[in-house]
Amino acid sequence: NLSGRLQQVIKTLRGQARLTEDNISDAMREVRMALLEADVALPVVKDFIAQVKERAQGREVLQSLSPGQAVIQVVHEELTRLMGEQNSELNLAAVPPAIVLMAGLQGSGKTTTSAKLARLLKGQKKKVLLASADVYRPAAIEQLKTLAASLEVDCFDSNATQKPLDIAAATLDYARRHYYDVVIFDTAGRLGIDEAMMAEISKLHTLLKPIETLFVVDAMQGQDAVNTARAFGETLPLTGVVLTKLDGDARGGAALSVRHITGKPIKFIGVSEKVDGLEPFHPERMASRVLGMGDVLSLIEQAQKNVDLDEAKRFADKVKSGKSFDLDDFKAQMQQMRNMGGMAALMDKMPAQVAGMAGQMGGEQGDKAMRRLEGIINSMTPSERRKPEIIKATRKRRIAAGAGVQVQEVNRLLNQFEEAQKMMKMISKGGMAKMMRAMQG
Ligand code: GDP
Ligand code: MG
């Protein structure tokens, strides 16, 4: 898949201390193939590669300390830019009711997404009305009513004997009289080439005057998804795209092409068939995910919120000054990690490489193990924590009894600590870069 292939390119690049034009060309050929195979549209691939190549051969990269890493950074930035730079929020700035019109092919996920959006907005304390004008597919209106009932959201009482335009007019009237904040208007699936059906949705648009007209499209359709979005956009003034079924084995190409080809931002992605499976779309985070870099941004946000900065600084100073690293420091480090949500939460967002290494400890199991280690350290006297080498057999038995563990576990902790101490020595001598290299093998 796309991620896997790009990660392979990254691995090769990262290993290179110096980059030549040939290195870059080889890497770009690989990236190009990976993108085409993921069904990214050809003009998008061409522009993208040209952009990355130009920057990769520029001073910014070649004069950097690790050119391989700098190229990866360029690829990441360009991927982000391709997808629209920033998250585009749902725009509801209209005289209420704000209308959201849903459009797309049959089976793309319009009805499901309507319900997901209603749930999201209800969570934001909005008074939401769902309505369906899908009078063509049997039971389509029932499907929306059932979803609405399960979410405890109101659904306008339309039925398949009515005309879609009449449903729209009645919905609007009802929503105004009952002071709804938002109306999510679900429609029948249609093809961009079906002139009668496209004329119908144009009329619905004229009547409803939606502030948002969302094109819902199945990511698994790859380039076709992008082409249908463009065709719809020629008839209907779309304001955004919802890319559904990204949880399946979608090749991912659609996410990369939509913005460039249609000029419309992806506003949400569907990540499961359940009603909570809708996420705001963040280009930067998607680029990280595609490159297997993990959701580093979320990780940093989390770290900034939860880490005790004074403690972190104290620790950094200690490491720099080459002072010895004792069991109290070891414990403080574990506590910091726990404040950040524990191993399980961290692993999800870590780059593939690091997560692989940490995987040996296991997410939730890692958390449990960490708590046991803390228990053992708590059972030690202050002098034992400062000078673990004084801990001999009888002391070990006392500590184990105090923490309610076996003596072997105390031994294991002391061994782990010794490893950590070695690592700290390495940092204070050779700096972070040396340690990272050692870890990457
Ligand atoms: P509509 O014809 O456009 O209204 O499509 P529906 O909302 O009825 O969805 C068609 C099918 O796709 C249903 O089986 C949904 O459960 C499924 N579906 C919709 N969105 C998603 C998604 O994000 N992920 C997954 N896995 N399935 C989805
Ligand atoms: Mg439907």
From TrEMBL:
Major location (coarse): cytoplasm
The name this protein goes by in its record: Signal recognition particle protein
Catalytic reaction list: GTP + H2O = GDP + phosphate + H(+)
Pfam families with a match to the protein in the record: SRP54, SRP54_N, SRP_SPB
Claim: Cell membrane is one of the keywords in the record: no
Binding site residues for GTP: 104-111, 186-190, 244-247
TM spans (from-to): none
Cited CDD domains: SRP_G
Subcellular compartments: Cytoplasm
SRP54-type proteins GTP-binding domain location: 265-278
One cellular component term from this protein's GO annotations in UniProt: signal recognition particle
Keywords on record: Cytoplasm, GTP-binding, Hydrolase, Nucleotide-binding, Ribonucleoprotein, RNA-binding, Signal recognition particle
UniProt xrefs under SUPFAM superfamilies: P-loop containing nucleoside triphosphate hydrolases, Signal peptide-binding domain
Gene3D superfamilies referenced in this protein's UniProt entry, alphabetically: P-loop containing nucleotide triphosphate hydrolases (3.40.50.300), Signal recognition particle SRP54, nucleotide-binding domain (1.20.120.140), Signal recognition particle, SRP54 subunit, M-domain (1.10.260.30)
A GO term, aspect molecular function: GTP binding
HAMAP family reported for this sequence: SRP54
An individual GO BP term: SRP-dependent cotranslational protein targeting to membrane
Encoding gene, per UniProt annotation: ffh
EC number(s) per entry: 3.6.5.4
Keyword Lipid biosynthesis annotated: no
Assembly and interaction partners: Part of the signal recognition particle protein translocation system, which is composed of SRP and FtsY. SRP is a ribonucleoprotein composed of Ffh and a 4.5S RNA molecule.
Organism: Pseudomethylobacillus aquaticus
Domain text: Composed of three domains: the N-terminal N domain, which is responsible for interactions with the ribosome, the central G domain, which binds GTP, and the C-terminal M domain, which binds the RNA and the signal sequence of the RNC.
Family, per entry: Belongs to the GTP-binding SRP family. SRP54 subfamily.
Domain of life: Bacteria
